[in-house]
């Protein structure tokens, strides 16, 4: 049968599961109400009787008992063997780099995949970029109330060949998605759903080995609570089968994340949650340490999510083409870009229609004239 986590099943897989229990007569009703794995895990006897019209008490009992088994399956092994193999293959694929001594990286791309900047792409070169709500002082503007005026910045370190992300003292924080098990240390902060946690204390034995962690919950429905984590680790989620359950957190998955203990170190990992697990770079109003960015990293600022990518050949050409950078002949004033006044107008911003050269406007996400968001660039033909 299905090999991936039951709480991520679709409607069809739930129906197939009912058939496997020899209760296929209810499959159509489940499909009609779009019962997927997440809803299945929230099922109660009242739901089965009233909403799903399962009149036989023993049938309801059989369904609920088997749901418990599915929950135990998720808790005992958050990632199924086949899924873990795939995750390992993905991790290995990320580790593959060109077989050269050094890969120069003097330009990165940030692609917005969620939020008000959705589908916008930003090229960041060696000069770096600042990100925030204030349009006058930032290279990338995110006009959200939860974004600080100057929220964070990306700078390139020529000596180490790294782009570095720094929270410049924002109120709501800059977050990086936890893609691989994250070593937890004193003061580290992370987010699951609406809940935010901080490693408040680390306990040691007389030989200097770490034995336990204390987590403080400082945001979300369970704020002001603390969690003691010993070497057995714990799981966190909305389901009561977790070691620590935050049922009131609507943005947290049934089984969201886990903390494990291995060779004297505590590790945090996501177990396939919907909204993912995020590391917060610094506390409210505090500047963070510079954090190296890697290709594939995912950054969250407010509700905007940005993916770190390498530029493709067309993006590099648009920025690095000397003919576009250094016009050899004067451009008539009436057809000159109103930003640089040295290149011809060749693109129009959509939807406002103001025209600029592609080189200048490629660095903008709002129109320099009217400040409306640029949803697309329309190439102009003579």
Question: What do these coordinates show?
Answer:
The protein is of the alpha+beta class. It contains nine helices and 23 strands. A ten-stranded antiparallel beta sheet has the order 2-1-20-19-7-17-9-10-11-12, with no helix packed on it. A hairpin with a 2-residue loop joins strand 15 and strand 16. It is globular, with a radius of gyration of 26 Å. Residues 79-97 and 322-326 have low confidence and may be disordered.
Number of helices: 9
Report mean pLDDT, rounded to a whole number: 85
What is the first-to-last residue Cα distance?
Answer: 60 Å
- Strand segment tally: 23
Question: Can you list the strand order of the major beta sheet?
Answer: 2-1-20-19-7-17-9-10-11-12
Strand share of the residues? 25-35%
Give the low-confidence spans: 79-97, 322-326
Provide a concise account of the structure shown.
By secondary structure, the protein is α+β, with helices and mostly antiparallel strands. The protein has helices spanning 11-20, 27-32, 37-40, 45-51, 57-76, 81-95, 313-320, 322-325, 358-361, and strands at residues 108-114, 121-124, 129-132, 140-141, 152-157, 162-167, 174-177, 182-183, 189-192, 195-204, 210-219, 226-229, 234-237, 244-245, 257-262, 265-270, 277-280, 291-292, 298-301, 304-309, 347-350, 355-356, 376-379.
Helix-strand layout with pairing:
Layout: H1 11-20, H2 27-32, H3 37-40, H4 45-51, H5 57-76, H6 81-95, E1 108-114, E2 121-124, E3 129-132, E4 140-141, E5 152-157, E6 162-167, E7 174-177, E8 182-183, E9 189-192, E10 195-204, E11 210-219, E12 226-229, E13 234-237, E14 244-245, E15 257-262, E16 265-270, E17 277-280, E18 291-292, E19 298-301, E20 304-309, H7 313-320, H8 322-325, E21 347-350, E22 355-356, H9 358-361, E23 376-379
Parallel strand pairs: 3-4, 13-14
Antiparallel strand pairs: 1-2, 1-20, 3-5, 5-6, 6-18, 7-17, 7-19, 8-16, 9-10, 9-17, 10-11, 11-12, 13-15, 15-16, 19-20, 21-22, 21-23
